[in-house]
Amino acid sequence: MTQFTGKQRMNTGFTIVELLVVIVVIGILAAITIVVFSGIRQRAVIATLQSDLNNGVTQLKSTQATTGSYPGDTSGVKGSSGTTYQYTVDNTTNPQIFCLTATNSGTSYFVDQNGTTQPGTCPGQNITWIIASTLASKYWNQVLMSGDGTKFMANTAADLTATALYRSTDSGSTWSNGNRPVVDKDMRSPALITADGSKVITAGFGNGSTSTYVSTDFGTSWTLSNAGGQITKFAASTTGSVMYGSEYFDSDYGGGGVRKSTDGGITWAYVITMPYAGNTIDAVATSSDGAKVVAAPDSPAPLVYSNNSGSTWSSLAGSGSRSWTDVAMSSDGTKMAAIGNGTIYTSGDSGATWIARTGPGTRSAIAMSSDGTKLISSNTANAQYIYTSNDSGVSWTPMSGLGTGFWLRSSISNDGLKYVVTNVASGNGVVYIGTYH
To answer: How far apart are CA 33 and CA 12, in angstroms?
Structure first.
């Protein structure tokens, strides 16, 4: 008979250390299994989304081939269980365009008319729009926004009463009447709210003259400036210490040009050293410090540029000789976007070279975030869409959910997370506020 001592029996069990090692190993194996399973499941979701989008492209293009245009919604697009769609379309452009986003289990992929699926959502579909419902429907000819997206101001050409100026200091949630600086002029000219919201510029035409006013209390009181001519657009440094105005006409010089102010918009001097002085200048844009400025001539000519606060100017030959209607600039002055002969042109090297962006079709106005990555463009022709871009103008998405209309100038916040636009139709208008998320 074999006998075991007590000491031998104790050595046959597991020690605490051995048990802990086993538990740790089991935990590691379980974690590896979970990671592997999650990876397999995620790849399956992506494959499903890509398949749904490829089928969606086939269905959308089949409709286009039959009817001559892409469908207005995704009711005819079939997807897998759990897949939801977002869809934007513009059949007014040549070629017609669309963008389709498919989402399943928190993962999104998108595809456009070119047929290449990509991760993420269609540019522009991550903007939520609401109507500024507290504003009565009027002919809103301009809606402005401060750089931080908290202050808004709207004016109307149809109502010339003293209080026909509306303002908001809570990102458009509530609105109150401001005091219109003059009641005998049509405040039709685009105005300006400085990036920090400290100053407001507005201009009006009427009774054979033009007046420009400055407010430092957000539209409660106004000071008349000495700016002459017909200023069509203003641009300013962040605080408004340096301002520029593009001038449609000045009787002293027999044409237009650019005026500059260094005292917050009270006094203005004509920049007569620029190469197109005497010609009509439709728009102007500047960097956050006011040192760099670009001006857009209306008559066929290249854009003009200054990097020393307007002291000297040079032609941006790379922009080409075109009739320009609007221009925008990033805060550091390296990125620009402009509308020439109705086409969007962008530059990422301070205006040395330019690329035509034909996707959005004919455009008339453009605005840009401080870093130059997000843009919004409108067209004052009827039956047009608002377009947005979040890649410095490389690709564009129509805001088809807003419908077509007569869109006037739009504004974008410095960080590109807030937008405001106005659609005017049959003498009435609707103000839309967009939030990027």
So the answer is: 32
